Amino acid sequence: MTTTRPAREAGSGHEPALPSIASVYRSRAVVELKEFFRQRESVVFTLLLPVLLLTVFGAVLDFDLGEGVSFTQYFMAGIIAAGILGASLQNMAISIATERSDGTLKHLAGTPMPRSAFFVGKVVQVLAVTVAIIVVLLLIGVVFYGIDLPSGSDWLVFAWVSALGAAACTLLGIALSSLAKNGRSASATVTPFALVLQFISGVFFQFSEIPTWMQTVAAVFPLKWMAQGLRSVFLPDALAADEPAGTWELGRVALVLAVWCVVGLLLCVKTFRWQDRGQ
Hints:
Blueprint: H1 21-38, H2 40-60, E1 64-66, E2 69-70, H3 71-101, H4 104-109, H5 115-145, H6 154-176, H7 183-200, H8 212-218, H9 222-234, H10 250-271
Antiparallel strand pairs: 1-2
Helix pairs in contact: 1-5, 2-3, 2-5, 3-5, 3-6, 3-7, 3-9, 5-6, 6-9, 6-10, 9-10
């Protein structure tokens, strides 16, 4: 007498387990970082451009602003703010518009991957690149230009200003990605906007020397406040008198950057698309 094994029913618990949401987020973050560092243009313009600007401006504009502060010491706050803007706003707006245009976003939206994983990966990429930019700029500033680093509680201010600024600019960059008609026009759409912000926000010049109407326009956007907050940790308190309000206004810096985080999030929810118009 022979016996037969009962047939294994489908759905009897032998299917492979689905990956956890944490592992999906981690995998997507790794993919985003690999894709960024494999794109030579992104690395050059996002990572190396701030370094080049610091090197050139630090060598050419070597003069004293008073209180024993060199222009390079003043410029360090602005170039870090500009580096954060490049890693977040410019990088997000251009890369997402390109991925939308070439069908990458449409493909990702059609996979089982949670859509939130895409945004988590982008945020991790921005944070990693931002930290790399800050570390490289500070290293070059200290070694070649004698920059005085923040001390004590100034590091805490440095951290929250950078984090809030990066968050606000990342969300704004994601929203701006929807303005470009396609990936090819993204750089032409976003780069002029970012350059104008840098010129009127006290990145390349002392903010007090910029015309009042430009200061007013700059005060609408997060870069001005990020640069102002970072100046507070690199410059002596005596130079706060050169700011429009005569103080560093750190409370207002936090408020404006936080408001831009909320505004940016709302704009993302309202405008983000997974494919180009007409597809």
